[in-house]
User: Fold this.
Amino acid sequence: MRDNVFKAEILDYASKLDAVTNSYGEIARAASAVVEDHDNSSTVYLINHTSKLIKSAESSKDLKRLANALKDSIMKFYGYHYILESQDKALGVDDDTRSLDELLEDLNRLIGLESVKAKVNDLIAFQTVQMLREEQGLHSHKGTMHLAFTGNPGTGKTTVARIVGRIYKQIGLLSKGHFVEVSRTDLIAGYQGQTALKVKKVIDEAKGGVLFIDEAYSITENDHSDSYGRECLTELTKALEDYRDDLVVIVAGYTEPMNHFFASNPGLKSRFNTFIEFPDYSAEELLSMFIKLCDENDYILAEDVQDYVYNILLKQVEGKEKNFSNGRLVRNIYDDITMNHARRTIKIDKPSRDDLARIICDDCINLCRN
Assistant:
């Protein structure tokens, strides 16, 4: 999928609106979740918030204009995404030009995830050798290529899934290698009999590539009373077998719900022979992500900032709850710090290049508010 031209526009308007309304990074964080993850709750929050500002009698003309610009950009962002996605699906487009060596390097360069990378590398080695054996007329057994990824949010499940799809394309296991991501709402219809049609449509779009089903356990969230969920699983299980030679289905979600999901569906579980657990990141790994994010966006950290951020991350890791947000926590901290930096720097008369790039400890206040 090509980059969405409205991404930068949303982030820019959100940053300005955040500063004007003194929202302490809340608007910027929501905007980041929209452009990076297409997060539904963040989208609804921004649309509702901007609508209230536009309608409020207390809002100035400039504030209303800024709120309207952000709201309009979000609409354009999703409209443009839908058009690009529809075009790419219709044409079977996969514009990723990375070689197999480059893809493997990208996989192995990911911060942390050592056990995940080892298992994925073993899987790729096995499938590659099976393809080579087949070319030489030897018996080959590729088995099912479908995968199950379990772990907390922000642990890299979607990123790894995308890379696996591209690698499978490069070694000849998939004809296209494109990536189709869906959730329950993309698979379940509102009327009996329509769910099967929705699932078939999704399968047709994903053939030749990877179908990634996030929070797969939500398909049967109402357990045995959910007839629509059962209808979905019937079609999905059939597709897993019928198109096993040119379709990889990767299901993902929190560990315990996924274990329950497979335990209640032994027929579905038999179609998956590779289960990979994505562990939570350590404080050191999260700090490396933060530094990488700053480097990629031309921010320079003052000497004491790394220690300051590390101590915050360490406290979060040591006191983490069941569904720790991992990489998303890092992104939230980065958004908060860069917003604080902007508030401080805007007050400097003719800021220098160093002023615009350097983050100091004064920028690290009011972090992890949410």
Remarks:
- The two ends are 31 Å apart (CA to CA).
- Residues 14 and 28 are 5 Å apart (CA to CA).
- The beta strands are 147-151, 179-182, 210-214, 248-253, 274-278, 300-301, 358-359.
- The mean pLDDT is 86.
